[in-house]
Amino acid sequence: MTLEFEIINRYFKKNTNVPLGIGDDAALINKNKREFWAISQDTLNNDTHFSSDTPPVELGWKALAVNVSDIYAMGGKPNYALLSISLNQHNEKWLKGFSQGLHACAKKYGVEIIGGDTTRGATSISITIIGSVFKKNVLKRDAAKVEDDIWVTGKIGLAAIGLDCVKKKIAMKDGLKKTFIEYLNKPQPSNIYSLQAKKLFHSAIDISDGLIADLSHILKSSGVSAEIFSNQLPVHPWTKKNEAYHYALYGGDDYQLILTAAQKNRSQIELLAKQEKIKLTCIGKITNGKKLKVFDTHGIPLKNLNKGFLHFDK
Ligand code: ADP
Ligand code: MG
Fold first, then answer.
1. What is the rounded distance in angstroms from the CA atom of residue 73 to the CA atom of residue 138?
2. What's the confidence (pLDDT) of residue 102?
3. Ligand 1, atom 25: nearest CA belongs to which residue?
């Protein structure tokens, strides 16, 4: 267990009376007979989640998008958001850009900003999001079943490549660099709401800390294991060409979804995803094994899997 989760469990986790409290992508509280409110909060801190030269318009987008992603991961639909922002100075140009990006994201995902808080301090943006989810459509981390297919939305590992471009750890042509940095700064969560309305999936999580790290939460909560095939991962051609699959396995910040579903739903999922223009790729399956197995492109199991992004570990 990582220190981040040790802190949460030791100091903040108490028994509650809500239908779902700490431990999933969002908490659930009763809305009416048929629906829950799904509530979640995500924070972006200067130097941890973005740098001072991150364009404010993209930061505004990202601050909300990372929260939208948590509501989709519950099978829900985002509705409202509250914005708490700390700023170290009053910078007109920055605020204009930030708010533009925020409102563009809100418009795209159908979210209304209904409140928040504005303070002076080290730059930090925290958004609380409220969504709604039909009780029969809820997706939790603990419901993956042995033999389920494992699906991911969109493409993965691109944001992590973008981060290495920003940090100048890798070099590539300007056009390509721009593409990857856009994935890092402007995540586009995939709306699977219409698919889940047909109850096609068993469980879900969004990828914030990396495919392996976040899949591991599903596996642990569900008491199962998995097999993942690198050659099935939806990666950018650059990743294939450079055999840089570690970006897709361990890189964070994708804000795509990992979903599990019964194999019998495979053709319906593929058909609906096509109709709804959602990219969905089957990357492996849930097993009753003891250990998560990741096969490289030659079909050889990888040794020493990393755990992805850890907030407190050195
Ligand atoms: P996510 O990556 O989906 O945003 P996290 O990994 O940040 O989720 O958090 C895991 C769970 O712990 C979530 O249910 C979250 O609400 C809860 N959590 C995180 N930090 C705290 C805290 N300080 N107090 C109470 N609950 C927390
Ligand atoms: Mg999440």
1. 9
2. 98
3. 12
**pTM assigned to the model:** 0.95
User: Any idea which fold 149-295 has?
Assistant: Phosphoribosyl-aminoimidazole Synthetase; Chain A, domain 2 (3.90.650)
Q: Which CATH superfamily is domain 3-137 in?
A: PurM-like, N-terminal domain (3.30.1330.10)
Q: Which ligand is nearest to the CA of 213?
A: 1
Q: Model confidence at 77, in pLDDT bands (50, 70, 90)?
A: very high
Per-residue confidence (pLDDT) for residue 290, from 0 to 100: 85
Pocket test for ligand 1, best of 2, 8, 41, 126 (most atoms within 8 A of CB): 8
SS3 content of the chain, % helix, strand, coil (to 5): 35, 25, 40
For residue 35 and ligand 1, the question of a CB distance below 6 A is answered with: no
Mean pLDDT over 35-48 rounds to: 96
| d(C-alpha 38, C-alpha 25), whole Å | 9
Using CA atoms, how far residue 42 sits from 26, 67, 128, 230, in Å, is 10, 6, 7, 29
Q: Looking at residue 314, what is its pLDDT?
A: 37
254 lines ligand 1 (CB under 6 A): no
Mean pLDDT of the chain: 95
